[in-house]
Predict the 3D structure of the following.
Amino acid sequence: MVNQKTLLDLAKKHGTPLFVVDHDELRRNYATFKKHFPRVQAYYAVKVNSDPAIVETFYKLGGSFDVASMQEFHTVYQFIKKLSAKARQDFIWDKIIYANPIKPIETLHELDRYRPLVTYDNVEEVKKIAKHAPHAGLCLRLQVPNTGSMVELSSKFGSPPGEAVDLIQAAHDHGLVVEGVSFHVGSQCTNPENYVQALHLSANIFNEAKLRGFTLKLLDIGGGFPAAYDASVPKFASLAKKINHEIDRLFPADIEILAEPGRFLVASAGTSVCKIIGKAVRNGKLGYYVDDGVYHTYSGVIFDHCTYHLQSFKRGAKQLCAVFGPTCDALDTISLAEHLPDLDIGDYLFSENIGAYSAASSTHFNGFPPAKVVHVNR
Ligand SMILES: Cc1ncc(COP(=O)(O)O)c(C=O)c1O
């Protein structure tokens, strides 16, 4: 992580709000993932932070990519467009998954020429894909338990396990090929049982599909790998050990295993720096007003159900205070319970572990643009 002196120097040089991305940390996280999941091909979930510089770093490491839209597809495509047509097509097939189960018809039209792997989870999508992207390969997204995960996804996506093989059959009947099964246990999943249950459900579907004449080749275990936001988060090594044990027990070595890690790869690589622009006592509590907020880098407070702590560069006796963003909306409250010293207007605050789902969902609300992004150790 970037040290405090560097952060302060960068804030003084570039102004605030500032979003600092440490590429050494991206590389460390990727290496940690690969070390603990040697059998798994890691597809970086671009939605978590689609900054091309971040995509480039994972590209240079040999990473693969999970994209959710045509825009994200093109962000990755920029790095492969100079390859030969064959190498480019191999890259798309081997290293990109379009993992949004619901795709607009226009997107399918555009995707078809690239012949990518795409996910689906319902029969209407099968009909759409058969008509508009018949050259795509399919991966069936399964509904799995998301119990205790910070961000729940299973209420919106995934075929109920009982309907899965019928959906494989439906794809086949429409002339499509289902390559495998995917799931997502929910983001920031601190409950390893979600993975264990999802792997069991998937193995049952592999077996049932085989009985019905369909041989599945790949399993995509999705994202959910937790960032170490605090000491309560299970150790990555022990989570990986448990998952690997189940994978090896349930899936023969010739089954390809994919994952779509996002948060785990980028959360700790992002640090934000903001400046105190106002100070007032509200409801008996000191409130600091800063130049970044929940419509900007701290958007994860709303969309990601995440809390971020603000830290001061200055020392001193701490007191309970609130920290508000710069817009005219009271929702723009970063925290009602931070412990900070007595600070002045113009002083800086920073938050660590804010790389995931933060800058990605920043807006221009109230005319305030997103934080400036600075890349270090690129
Ligand atoms: C399909 C899909 N894959 C991967 C991810 C990334 O998940 P995470 O950041 O929890 O690793 C998401 C997040 O929403 C997702 O929807």
Notes: Residues 192-211 form the longest helix (20 residues). The pocket of pyridoxal-5'-phosphate is lined by residues 45, 48, 66, 99, 153, 184, 187, 222-225, 260-264 (CB under 6 Å). The chain has twelve helices and 16 strands. The first strand starts at residue 18 and ends at 22.
